[in-house]
Write a structure and sequence with these properties.
By secondary structure, this protein is of the alpha/beta class. The protein has helices spanning 21-25, 29-37, 41-52, 101-120, 173-176, 182-198, 203-217, 221-224, 227-247, 250-257, 262-271, 276-285, and strands at residues 61-63, 79-83, 88-95, 130-137, 149-154, 157-165. A six-stranded mixed beta sheet has the order 1-2-3-4-6-5, with helices on both faces. Strand 5 and strand 6 (157-165) form a beta hairpin.
């Protein structure tokens, strides 16, 4: 039997329902749910086919979950996989708002994975894997053409991230009519979660509203039929409400006051689920309060 590469790859023999709270709770709630849903080869095959337009066999996908000891930061990528022949690494990040910092984060994730590969097999890295980077966009507004690619240039190196619309209304009918589709199920959940928030519901109330809608439509069966999972992710959304009540903007305002650069402020705003538009409103409000 071939030995699996020791780089923190997901063990397919372990049931997905046995979750590591470190892996899921450190992200905001929608990202945590996204990461859970797209943590196995079947779901990764589906979303990769959609965002890339290419076909890949689930048997050629090894999900990557880095060991915390091999990471320099507490922030983890949403989901990633490497092909069995080591020729391709794919990174997928879910976002409901867009900014250029996603390209920098993807580069950090790539460095983490390559560092892990080097530790596991230092004498066999003459051929570096190709890399593809994607953002699965599920925000409120339709993507503009100029938002479909995020690019940063680092000297002779260019980091390119393709941004693909995965909102429910952007998916083809044959996919949305498939209740077994992980992608359609997640998009359906987000659609009704945002509908709940827009109607004045809390994050926790919107979460249960969206879960009930998914149950009625037959989506996300492995979650909606599992009380343990419903309760666990419900706690995440309850925590979101708590953070909101305590003031999502506090850390951001402190960073502005201390003169933090714009890229860092944009990253902090994303962590706090604060839109870029709101960030610049706060910057305008705080003119004269910045330390120099």
């Amino acid at each position: 039997m071939e030995k699996k590469k020791d780089i923190g790859l997901k063990n397919e023999t372990e049931p997905r329902k046995e979750l590591n709270t470190r892996d899921y709770s450190v992200r905001n709630s929608k990202d945590s749910l996204f990461r859970y849903i797209f943590s196995d080869s079947d779901a990764l095959e589906e979303i990769y086919t959609w965002v890339s337009g290419k076909n890949i066999s689930r048997d050629n996908i090894e999900p990557i979950i880095l060991d915390e000891k091999l990471q320099r930061r507490s922030r983890f990528n949403d989901t990633a996989f490497i092909t069995n022949d080591d020729r391709l690494i794919v990174f997928l990040e879910h976002q409901s708002t867009l900014n250029i910092t996603v390209a920098y984060r993807m580069l950090e994730y790539y460095v983490d994975v390559m560092r892990s590969l080097k530790l596991s097999r230092p004498k066999n890295l003459s051929q570096l894997p190709m890399v593809e980077m994607y953002v699965a966009y599920n925000g409120k507004q339709e993507l503009k053409d100029e938002e479909k690619v995020a690019v940063i240039n680092l000297g002779a190196v260019q980091i390119k991230v393709d941004v693909v619309d995965v909102r429910f209304e952007a998916l083809p009918k044959e996919r949305t009519e498939d209740s077994d589709s992980s992608l359609a199920g997640y998009a359906y959940f987000v659609k009704f979660f945002e509908e709940g928030k827009a109607s004045g519901k809390t994050a926790y109330e919107s979460y249960h509203y969206a879960i009930n809608e998914c149950a009625e439509a037959g989506y996300l069966a492995d979650i909606v039929n599992n009380k343990e999972l419903i309760d666990m992710f419900g706690e995440h959304y309850s925590y979101d409400d708590q953070i909101f009540d305590e003031g999502r903007e506090y850390v951001l305002r402190q960073a502005i006051k201390n003169g933090s650069p714009i890229p860092l402020l944009e990253t902090l705003a994303e962590y706090a689920d604060i839109s870029t538009e709101r960030l610049y409103q706060i910057l305008e409000e705080m003119k004269g309060s910045v330390l120099v």
